Amino acid sequence: MRVGLLAVFSLAISLPCSVSAAPDLAPKSEQADAIRVFKSTRRMELLREGKVLRGYRIALGDAPVGHKRQQGDERTPEGDYRIAYRNPNSRFHLSLRVSYPNRLDREQARKRGVDPGGDIMIHGSTPPGSTRDWTDGCIAVTNAQIEEIWRLVPIGTPIRINP
Questions:
Q1: Domain spans of the chain?
Q2: Structure pTM?
Q3: HSE of 79 in the Cβ direction (CA atoms, 13 Å)?
Q4: With contact defined as beta carbons under 8 Å apart, do 99 and 107 qualify?
Q5: Is 64:162 a contact under the CB 8 Å cutoff?
Q6: Strand, coil or helix: what is 127?
């Protein structure tokens, strides 16, 4: 019996302490087929067939003006990307990885001899009602909003980030 308890205890300590309660994707007919971000007005829209499904107030990087050029500049990139990964265990509740840097971003950074950076996400953890830019270059919304976005945005969704 002691061996059995030890085996159960060993299994229990190897499991993660918490399992994410990430919502399931909505049916395909309800999912967004594009995302538009407007940095200057701090807005993000989810679209389906050219029509706005949802709109959100967003927070950006601490240096929101201009295109991200290198690691650590705290800018949010501008241009055309895709949602490359869905992280249900993000330290910012849930997150969707933006495919920055693209080929052009990497080439420009290489020419300048700098690291283009990466890990640009759409994620939660913005306090409701906040108007402050606080990320290192990501696009942030509230936890309730990222749960809704998570349901509506599959991997591969194109995202255009406008100045």
A1: 29-162
A2: 0.83
A3: 16
A4: no
A5: no
A6: coil
Distances (CA, A) of 19 to 3, 15, 26, 84, 146: 27, 9, 20, 22, 17
pLDDT tier at 20, thresholds 50, 70, 90: low
Residues identified as active-site = 123, 138
Under CATH, which number does the domain 29-162 receive? 2.40.440.10
- Reply yes or no on whether the pLDDT at 6 is more than 60: no
Q: b/e map of 134-146 (b: 16 or more CB within 10 Å)?
A: ebbbbbbbbeebb
With bands split at pLDDT 50, 70 and 90, how would you rate the model's confidence at 110?
A: very high
DSSP annotation of 107 reads H
What does residue 6 show for φ and ψ, rounded to 5 degrees? -65, -40
Tell whether the model's pLDDT for residue 5 goes beyond 70: no
CA dihedral 74, 78, 81, 85 (to 10 degrees): 20
Q: Please state, in angstroms and rounded to a whole number, the distance separating the CA atoms of residues 68 and 58.
A: 17
How far apart CA 152 and CA 22 sit, in angstroms, is: 12
